[in-house]
Amino acid sequence: MVDLIVCGLGPAGRAVAHRALARGLSVIAIDPRPERPWQATYAVWRDELPAWVDPSVVATVSRPRARALGEHRIERDYGVLDTAALHTCLTLEGARVLADRVLAVDHAAGTVRTAAGAVLAAARVVDARGLGRAPGRAEQTAYGVVTALGDLARVGGPLFMDWHADNGAATDDPPSFLYAVPLDGERALLEETCLAGRPALGLDVLRDRLHTRLRARGIALSGAEPVERVRFPVEGGRPGGDRFGAAGALTHPATGYSVAAALAAAGAAAEGAPLWPPRARAVLALRRAGLRTLLALPPRDLPAFFDAFFALPVDRQRAYLSGRDDLAGTAAAMSALFARLPARLRRHVVTAVGPGLRAGR
């Protein structure tokens, strides 16, 4: 019997397996395609990365802007990750790596059954297979193109969010924003994003909006540009129970970010330490209230909401975006945001947030 079985080798699962090996534990890691390259673009706030992560995994660093009603410089270093370097950094040397599909996990018994018919046992099993789509589960969607780095300046980037209304959407249509970041010294990602929707905007709608927006800013696409398509749930994960990554509720419900949180928590997960003390569970409840607010706001009011958020001091922004167990900071950020909102938005916030918090969700 080994010390640990890790199911799923995306960034979250691979990080847990890597940190377990660094602690001298015996590890079996299972994934249908364990060496499959990660195709998605992952980004982090640099101050979120744990010290053990090799700095070389950060491909580019910028201090992006957010555009809503006005324009805001975000005073935090924002890094786009080199996914190949991250994959290499999270070495699995010493692990038994199986190219197989997990059919069933019994956490109580410490067993895993695979499609190849194997039944494997360990002192502990961590399930990091991600979170599947489900009807009624809010999702984030995005459609992006990889273009020449010079196009980043043409759209006014780097941009964490740009809610300007030049994407062809009507005022009362479900909203989307432009995300624009450098990928390396030659390429940029320009992406139209639906932050959260139930249902989220379709990729065809986002594609058309992106093309409209880029034409409005003087960028003509050839049609040969590499494309990035994004669709994943931002709700549905459950904390605890040796679930990790998106399945273990490490996805920020109101932003969709999860990789930095998984890297930061990987060591504790590898050791079997509690990841969800009461403060962290309370922060999760507040963040889920934030998601309900985003889903409830009228589309035309999203720019005003984010204008108020990015006008907050950077420590308040950091607490809400990155403080997974910073209950005082998260509550202070949400209170400060509420105080900045126009009265009509406050009413929507109270309606969306109140019942969920009273029910303890």
Give an account of the 3D structure.
- The chain is an alpha+beta fold.
- The chain contains 10 helices and 16 strands.
- A hairpin with a 4-residue loop joins strand 9 and strand 10 (111-114).
- Helix 1 runs parallel beside helix 5 and helix 8 (314-322) crosses helix 9 (327-340).
Essential attributes:
7-stranded mixed β-sheet; alpha+beta; FAD/NAD-bd_sf; Lycopene cyclase family protein; 361 residues; single chain
In short:
This protein is α+β, with helices and mostly antiparallel strands. It contains 10 helices and 16 strands.
Span from first to last CA?
Answer: 38 Å
Major sheet: arrangement of strands: 6-5-13-14-15-12-16
The coarse overall form would be globular
Low-pLDDT stretches are none
Tell me how many strands there are. Answer: 16
Helix tally? 10
Radius of gyration: 21 Å
Overall pLDDT: 95
Structural class: alpha+beta
Helix content: 25-40%
Sheet with the most strands?
Answer: 7 strands, mixed
State which percent range the strand residues make up.
15-25%
Pattern of helices and strands: EHEEEEEEHEEEEEHEEEHEHHHHHH
Protein name: Lycopene cyclase family protein
InterPro entries: FAD/NAD-bd_sf (IPR036188)
